[in-house]
Design goal:
Distance between the termini of chain A: 78 Å
Order of helices and strands of chain B: HHHHHHHHH
Number of helices of chain B: 9
Number of strands of chain A: 0
Radius of gyration of chain B: 20 Å
Mean pLDDT of chain A: 94
Largest sheet of chain B: none
Oligomer: heterodimer
Largest sheet of chain A: none
Helix content of chain B: over 70%
Low-confidence stretches of chain A: none
Number of helices of chain A: 9
């Protein structure tokens, strides 16, 4: 411990039941997400079972002060918020001074948001989605496609939450070093390369199966799609794909009806 | 319309998964539309709608406070409508996808309103939150979860009740042939997916070569099948 670190008590004991309670609540951490406190109330909701262990229990001043602190503004990726939850439980139960906890809590926000967004939303999710599309393209039925996507995605999702809670709890105030984990640092790049390769395989196979009996159209559809994709990339940020699809398909339907 | 209640339950659960609970991605179109189709006894049709929507959904990343379409309830509506039409007629896929896209757009707006409402509720409970009230924290969380489930269930019900008769009527006068109808929708969806793949992954070194190699494998596989 450095001279600047505050005095902390020995590692507190948290029962398995309390951890299960915290983990279950973490699945609902965004339940009251809003534009003012973002994830703040969710963090308070998740750490509450552990805070009951503070001296005086739920009626004690320590519990109430901790609840106020932990329910304030917080921002992070919902899965990687587990790192913060584990670390905040540790520091609250270890008797770290409130001002130090508040600074620590604020410092966690940024990194847990950006790392999680790159790893999960821009990496793991599209990768698993493309695997699901590849299964479809290779001829799998509804059950196989769904099970493949669901099991694969949630193996990563739940593992990340469990790892985050564990590493937060075991490292406490030193949890920042966990963000240097190779999976978090290099994972997005490897996922992007893997997903690019899967996208290359999956797109023509998926299009072919979607066309079904009309597979003779495949060349025309892939060619038109490639040209339209180039246009969309050029317009990036100015046109949202789903809105463009909504307008174009609505116009197409209108033509089909009035023709 | 006896199917509305169970469909609302399904849409509510899958809509809740988008943001609030448990974010296991059962709300992805691939899953939600297939379940919507299975509800009417045609999971294969649901899957076809779901795959088309999934291609489009690749472009929407649910980053933090950004505004994005709500795919969970929307895909249930799209899959259910296409399956409930019980037809191989031209336009069934186009109409299911169109219904889902419209619902997803409205669903995204309702998500924004829910977040505004959550903030309003939190402001009202501010004194209790500042006093460290356990009940206030848990109450806000449960209120948000309940409201989101209700939002998604009502959205599913209203969207299906309004759009299914329109879909039936539209299909009755659909004049374009199936190859063109299907090809048009699939072209748009795959263009959006291709653009999304480029936008998301191109910054990784060598990603374009991985894509090119994958594409070569995909085309070879198509050729030998």
């Amino acid at each position: 411990m450095t001279a600047a670190s505050p005095p902390v008590a020995a590692t507190p004991h948290v029962s398995a039941v309390t951890w299960i309670n915290i983990f279950t609540r973490m699945l609902a951490i965004q339940g009251s997400w809003n534009y003012e406190t973002l994830l703040g109330n969710g963090v308070g909701f998740c750490v509450e079972p552990a805070l009951r262990l503070l001296p005086g229990g739920v009626r004690g001043p320590a519990f109430k002060a901790a609840m106020t602190r932990e329910s304030a503004y917080f921002n992070a990726h919902p899965y990687l918020a587990s790192v913060a939850i584990g670390a905040l439980v540790r520091v609250e139960l270890s008797g770290v001074p409130p001002a130090h906890i508040e600074r620590f809590r604020t410092a966690l926000c940024g990194p847990l948001g950006s790392v999680g967004d790159r790893l999960v939303w821009a990496g793991w999710l599209p990768f698993c989605s493309l695997i699901g599309l590849l299964c479809f393209g290779l001829g799998s039925g509804p059950a196989a496609v769904l099970v493949t996507f669901f099991v694969l995605y949630n193996a990563g999702h739940l593992a990340l939450r469990v790892w985050g809670l564990h590493v937060g709890w075991t490292r406490g105030l030193g949890v920042a070093s966990a963000l240097a984990n190779p999976v978090l640092r290099q994972g997005p790049t490897h996922l992007a390369r893997a997903a690019s390769a899967i996208a290359g395989v999956a797109l023509p196979l998926t299009v072919a199966r979607l066309l079904g009996h009309h597979v003779a159209l495949l060349g025309a559809v892939l060619g038109a799609a490639a040209l339209a994709a180039v246009v969309l990339v050029r317009l990036h940020g100015r046109v949202e794909g789903y809105k463009a699809a909504l307008v174009l398909i609505a116009l197409f339907a209108l033509v089909s009806v009035v023709r | 319309m006896t199917e509305l209640l169970p469909l609302a339950l399904l849409g509510g659960i899958l809509g809740l998964d988008v943001v609030c609970f448990p974010q296991m991605m059962v709300s992805r179109p691939l899953v939600a539309a297939t379940l919507g189709g299975a509800f009417f006894g045609d999971p294969a049709m649901g899957l076809t709608v779901g795959v088309t929507l999934e291609l489009i959904a690749l472009a929407t990343l649910p980053f933090g406070a950004s505004r994005y379409p709500e795919w969970g309830s929307a895909a249930v509506v799209g899959g259910a409508i296409s399956a409930a039409l019980h037809t191989e007629r031209a336009g069934a896929l186009s109409i299911g996808v169109l219904a889902a896209l419209a619902t997803a757009w409205v669903g995204g707006l309702t998500l924004v309103q829910l977040r505004v409402w959550n903030a309003w509720l939190a402001r009202r409970r501010r004194p209790a939150l500042d006093a460290g009230s356990r009940g206030a924290v848990i109450g806000l969380q449960l209120a948000g979860l309940t409201a989101d489930w209700l939002r998604a269930a009502v959205l599913t019900t209203v969207a299906y009740a309004l759009l299914f008769p329109v879909a039936q009527a539209t299909l009755g006068v659909w004049s374009l042939r199936e190859p063109l109808s299907r090809g048009f929708v699939v072209s748009i969806a795959s263009a959006i997916a291709g653009a999304a793949a480029w936008t998301i992954f191109h910054s990784a070194r060598g990603a374009r070569w991985y894509f090119a190699a994958g594409l070569a494998v995909g085309l070879v596989l198509l050729g030998v099948r």
